[in-house]
Design brief:
500 residues, Growth Hormone, Chain: A, 2 domains, 19 helices, globular
């Protein structure tokens, strides 16, 4: 009798796609769905704002440590086993998160969940890129991008609805049926390509320690720097030094080792290197604005958490539409021109957002968000395709892990920079506006203070949007430093190679 969980060599590409997209979307949505429930979780578990913030921070810390290990773990465990194990860890941790009775338990379970979730995105991208033949990889990255880009917009909307209409544990429990289905489908449909060889050396414990300490310290600095007033904090100063030293030694070690834990030789491909630079900038815009926009909607325009989620949806739907368009056009146009176009369109949208006032309504935000989402589709799909286009299949898992990590760190840098600028620009605007108030004009002091505070914040948000627009406009020409070398149309896909 045939084992129902034995891999089907004839598994349709569609079933492989559905399998990896289930895990991808689940992991990405879960990284943002928690943000709108932070206050409810803190109140329910009796935790302070600082304590409950670790529910989000712990997940991201675990993510960034696992992502660069993607290639080594894939080779060590095999693709199917590694992806299935990641899904199992994520699903079990989701159940545990929902059962947490205190903040310490929840943070620990979120770290475990982050270990599983950190592997899902780069592994899904590697499987998608290898499963589709070269001439269809634009479509593959468009489908992958739907989860990677639309997920962050759907998360807050779904989280807001659950928090308003149910209880916070449900944001974790909804992962369980999805995770079980994805696990079973992985065992049936995901191939183990023969070109992925088991590592010739054992675990490099010193390299693993250096990487873990370096990346965790760096992510902590970026996550908590503004909160702790940056280098006025001895903890931030010490961890900055630790991260620089540990990561410098780690990179030197990886470049010298014959069988490195993380293959940094993928940077020998110029398109991959340029693509990672652009990935940092796109992460800066995507993750940075993903944080700034909800704050802007709720603190300046007075929207609820659910309404904020709805305001983000037009951009997500626009991204979905543009990704489908560019996925079909990619073989007919210069991918570099599409990347540059996406950067310019995204920059235009943030410039438009920089012209809003405190009286802005739905339609004032709708059109910039629609344009922003449209630009992201033209940016993300060809950027992924060009960046990974020259990477040999045997190195794909490691390359996607590094690529995902770099974009994540770019987002962390973006959030750190934008939140710091927000506070500084608000303080500057406050001083200017407050110094100009010489008469009360019939308003109470409290009312005037509130008005000055709101206008100061509005000026600061406008400044952030305009800065982001300029950064994206300046980055657009870098796309033409990438090389476009389409592979022969007859090249076999990963699924075909695995079946041989």
């Amino acid at each position: 009798m045939r084992n129902p969980f034995a891999h089907r060599h004839d598994a349709p590409v569609g079933l492989i796609t559905i399998t990896v997209m289930l895990g991808l979307i689940m992991a990405i949505i879960d990284s943002t769905i928690v943000n709108v429930a932070i206050n409810n979780i803190g109140g329910n578990l009796g935790a302070s704002v600082d304590e409950v913030s670790w529910v989000a921070t712990g997940y991201i810390l675990a993510n960034v440590v696992v992502m660069p290990l993607n290639g080594w773990l894939t080779a060590f465990l095999g693709r199917k086993r590694f992806y299935a194990a990641s899904l199992a860890v994520f699903t079990i941790a989701s159940f545990l998160c929902g059962t947490a009775t205190n903040i310490t338990q929840l943070v620990i379970y979120r770290v475990i969940q982050g270990v599983g979730g950190g592997a899902l995105q780069p592994t899904a991208q590697a499987i998608m890129f290898e499963t589709y033949p070269p001439e269809k990889r634009g479509n593959a990255m468009a489908i992958f991008g739907l989860g990677a880009m639309v997920g962050p917009a759907v998360g807050p909307t779904l989280g807001g609805y659950i928090v308003d209409n149910a209880s916070w544990p449900l944001i974790f429990y909804i992962n369980i049926p999805i995770g079980i289905v994805a696990f079973l489908m992985t065992m049936m449909f995901i191939p183990n390509p023969k070109y992925i060889e088991r590592p010739k050396a054992g675990i490099d414990w010193s390299g693993l320690g250096l990487m873990t300490v370096g990346l965790a310290s760096l992510q902590y600095v970026l996550e908590r720097g503004e909160h702790d007033d940056w280098y006025d904090s001895s903890t931030i100063t010490i961890l900055t030094i630790v991260s620089v030293v540990a990561l410098t030694i780690f990179i030197w070690k990886m470049l010298r080792d014959k069988h490195p834990l993380v293959n940094l030789q993928v940077f020998r491909h110029s398109s991959f290197t340029v693509g990672n630079v652009l990935g940092v900038i796109s992460g800066f815009g995507l993750f940075g604005t993903a944080l700034i926009l909800p704050l802007f909607f709720q603190t300046i325009l007075g929207f609820t958490a659910f309404d904020t989620g709805l305001m983000l949806l037009p951009g997500a739907l626009s991204t979905a539409a543009s990704m489908m368009i560019v996925g079909r056009l990619l073989n007919r146009i210069d991918a570099r021109a599409s990347i540059a176009f996406g950067f310019l369109v995204f920059g235009l949208s943030t410039w438009m957002l920089g012209g809003l006032s405190t009286e802005a309504g739905f339609w004032d935000v709708f059109w910039p968000r629609l344009i922003q989402g449209f630009g992201l589709g033209f940016l993300f799909v060809p950027l992924s395709t060009c960046s990974l286009g020259d990477i040999p299949n045997a190195e794909m898992a490691g390359a996607t892990g590094v690529y995902t990590l770099v974009r994540q760190l770019g987002g962390s840098f973006g959030i750190a920079i934008l939140t710091t600028l927000l506070l500084h620009q608000t303080a500057i605007a406050w001083n200017v506006l407050a110094s100009g108030v010489t008469q009360t004009h019939g308003y109470s002091i409290g009312t005037l203070t509130s008005m000055v505070a709101q206008q100061s914040a509005m000026i600061a948000y406008n400044y952030l949007f305009r800065v982001t627009a300029i950064v994206f406009a300046l980055a657009a020409p870098l796309a033409f430093l990438m090389k476009v070398k389409p592979r022969p149309s007859g090249a076999p896909s990963a699924a075909a190679l695995a079946a041989e």
